[in-house]
Amino acid sequence: MKSVPILDVADAVASGPAEFAGTKQYFATADVNGSDLLDGTEVTFDGRPSRANLVAQQNDVLFAKMQATDKVVHVNCRTESAIFSTGFFNLRAKRDVLDSRFLFWFLRSPQFQFEKDKRCTGATQKALTLSGLREILLPSIPDIGQQKRLAAILDKADNVKRKRSLSLQSLHELIVSEFVSRFGNAATNPKKLPTAPIKEFGKVVTGNTPPRKNPSNFGKNIEWIKSDNINTPSHFLTPAEEWLSEVGRKIGRTAPAGSTLVTCIAGSPSVIGNAALADREVAFNQQINAVIPGHETDPFFLYCQFLVSKSLVQAASTNSMKGMVSKGKFQEIKFLKPSPEEQRDFGNFFSRTTSLGGRLEESQRDCNAFFDSLITSAFRGEL
Q1: pLDDT, tens digit, for every residue of 355-377?
Q2: Rounded to whole angstroms, how far apart are CA atoms 357 and 170?
Q3: DSSP 200
Q4: Cα–Cα distance between 100 and 264 in angstroms, integer?
Q5: Superfamily, domain 171-343
Q6: Is residue 108 within 8 Å of residue 70, measured between CB atoms?
Q7: What are the extents of the domains in the chain?
Q8: What letter does residue 240 receive in the DSSP assignment?
Q9: CA-to-CA dists, residue 283 to 112, 274, 286, 347, angstroms
């Protein structure tokens, strides 16, 4: 086995769409969570965003160019007719030399993500360029039969991970179902509960970005949350990649534990309204509105109302292609407002359920660690 430049065994394809009638599905980088495609957006040829200019064939493998972004798509028969953002590179494995699933798993490996990230350049949003991609080596190329065997092992291990995720998803569905059973939803309010604008549930704060031209704004004082830390299956914010310094913290905007953070600006409308709970104090960027609950608002009740009422946040968007909800419109969205006692009772249910979910998440973390070890071994020639 030998290491070879990745572009010796795969082509970087940058074909745009031919003119078409009607609509096609468009996937921005924000519409990919790991290797899973979210809903995307229907676009016309003339009305599509400027970045909607990449098409792919079945078995092509796309990955996001952005630094610290593990988003990889293996194109299948369902998605080969779609349009993708130019924020992806599209790699086409050379037949009889490289198996497309083997390529997919290499692009998802910690080795590739490390090599990608250290070559990313740019003043604001760092990303991999074609010249940087040319420098990346595929560390070991066994024969095509061995590639298929390794890819099959990783596929099976990934399936185990996904089954653990489904258990967590079932708990999520239980929480949503219990909320609707008790309160209904704010869109139709079948139980005729009192309603109030979001601003009456607590203080609404829009995040910001301290000036990057001053590197001293960034350090290790407080996590700086982005929408990627919200757009996950977890009820709670995931750990941030970037942190602010003590100086940056004074310029930034923060929210305490118990706040709900909501994505209000995104490259795709489907991401608008995604929410997560803060279990520690955090800073956050301008794509996010935080609601810091008042003393009569149960934080878990408020968060779950965002889960159930995502469509209301999306309906307040002022940009049909990218998705953007201003603070003014956001804080006027009307939510259900049962009594504080009813809110707290539901909050207790949420706490008990997520406690079980925490144990499942710990089990899944162990599973993920095993998978990371497995994928690393695969590309060291140790399997």
Answers
A1: 876 676 777 777 788 888 889 88
A2: 10
A3: G
A4: 36
A5: DNA methylase specificity domains (3.90.220.20)
A6: yes
A7: 4-139, 171-343
A8: P
A9: 29, 17, 10, 25
